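As described in the Methods, two query proteins were run sequentially through the folding procedure within a single session, without resetting any intermediate state between them. The first query and its resulting structure tokens are shown here.
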Amino acid sequence: MPLGIVATCVLGLEEILEEELRSLGAEELKREMEQQQVRLDLRRLYQKLDYSTYGGAPLLGVNGVVVIAHGGSSPQAIRNGIGVAVSAVERRMVEHIATRLGQVAETSEQR
């Protein structure tokens, strides 16, 4: 399966989880967790699941930096998505992936 499809699926799953958590409602979820004696910082969980925290995900399988975002992204999400793209360029993500894939291919050919 191409990596770009995987990234799209991961973003879709994240959106579904976020919608489910919102539909449960924070209070109902908190009561349910207390009944099961589970302690969890909902704010931290929400930030991890909220797509606008990251703004998008790198689209893998292209020769360059492409960040895909949710169609209804807020200005904050777009800003954070641009930050993801800048970080990918600064960290030379494409070059690192290409180098590593080349190493894996060489290892496979030697076997």
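Immediately afterward, the second query was submitted; its sequence and tokens are:
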Amino acid sequence: MGLEKLVNVDCANFSDVHVDSIQKAFEIVRNSRTDKSLISVEFWTGDIPLYDVEQDGAILYLNGAINLIFTHFEDVTHQLRTNGNYVLPDQELVVSLKSGNALRTKLSDLNLQEEFIDYGYFDIDTSDYKTLNESQRAFAEYIYRDLKTSMKLLQKFGIGKQRIISLYPTYVKDTVKEIGPFSRACSLELSNQSHSFNAAAYQIVFSFAKIRGVPVEFYKK
């Protein structure tokens, strides 16, 4: 897939790009190493956050293999707009999102700082990312892959901090008790803004964020 075929489109025009080509966070980060225009642009990514409660507590699964948001766009955006959360249509899809290369994170291990009633954050100092704990680092590596290279790139563009957003464990526990496993959307912005990677996003329809992928007419598996 050549970079020259990749385009950025508004959410309303997401069908202009092939759904299987919509980029995940790590792909946008990787492309930004050679394309400065991707810096300080907000994107909806192909990553899917699944929140559930298991024996060891509230859990977040991040999976880029199943593009849930854009394959169920009308249903997902309606639920997010109405209820703030997306209830998955069947248990088989829940199992799929937990499988493969999905990153499993126990939310209490992220040591989230308070931001709002349902979500919190941890920060990555681009010049001192080695202070991250094991779970925070695994989360960061899911987004940025090679931390050394990615953090050096961000420093080059004057970006000293990346803020990672996730739902609070208590909110997840209370919500799963009511509606079962649920999802939201993920966004990425390589900048000093308050939300660098957000795994708790829901205002996907009311956003200026872009979607990055290959136009349908150029897509080849």
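The helical segments are 25-32, 68-71, 73-83, 91-97, 134-144, 147-156, 169-179. We note this only descriptively and draw no conclusion about the first query from it.
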